[in-house]
Amino acid sequence: MITETGKVIALKEDQAWVQTIRQSACESCSARSGCGQRVLASATSGRANQVLVRNTVDARVGDEVTLGIDEQALLGASLLVYALPLLLMVLASVAGHQLSGGADLGAIAGAVGGLTLGFVLGRWRQTGRGHRYEPRLLRVNRIASGA
C-alpha cells in the first residue's frame, strides 16, 4: 500500500477534499548533489495537491488523514494508460506497413489507429472499476493529548 498524509480541507456529502503537500526525498539522499531529479523536485516542491475521496473514516475538516492506494492497482493503471496504447501502436504500425506494401502512409495510419484503439480499450477496461484505481482514506491521524 502506497500511503500519503494530508489534511481534510472540505467535506462534500459523503466525500472529503484532502490536500497533500508533495514532499521530496532528496534531503536524505546521499546522491543529491549530482542528481537531476533534485532540480525537478525543487521546481515543484511545496505544491499542494487536492483529491476528492470517499469519507469512509468519518473525517472532519482540519483532520490529518492517511490516504492509500494499492500498489497493484497503481501498476495496473499504469499499464493500461501507457503500455497498452504504445504496444498496440507499434503492432498496428508494423501491420499497416506490411498491408500497404511498405508504404510509410500505411505505417502512420496503423500507428494512429493502434494508439487510438489502445486508449479506447484502456478506458473501456477501467470503466466500472474506478474505485479500484482511486485513493482511499485509511485512517484519521489523531494526536493523543496528555493531561
Keyphrases for this structure?
single chain, 147 residues, alpha+beta, OB fold (Dihydrolipoamide Acetyltransferase, E2P), 2 domains, 3 helices, 41% helix
What does this protein look like?
The chain is of the alpha+beta class. It folds into 2 domains: 2-69 and 136-140, OB fold (Dihydrolipoamide Acetyltransferase, E2P) (Beta Barrel); 72-130. The protein is built from 3 helices and 5 strands; from the N terminus they run ββαββααβ. The chain has helices spanning 36-44, 71-99, 104-126; strands at 2-12, 15-21, 48-54, 64-69, 136-140. Strands 3-2-1-4-5 form a 5-stranded antiparallel sheet. Helix 2 runs antiparallel to helix 3. The two termini are 35 Å apart.
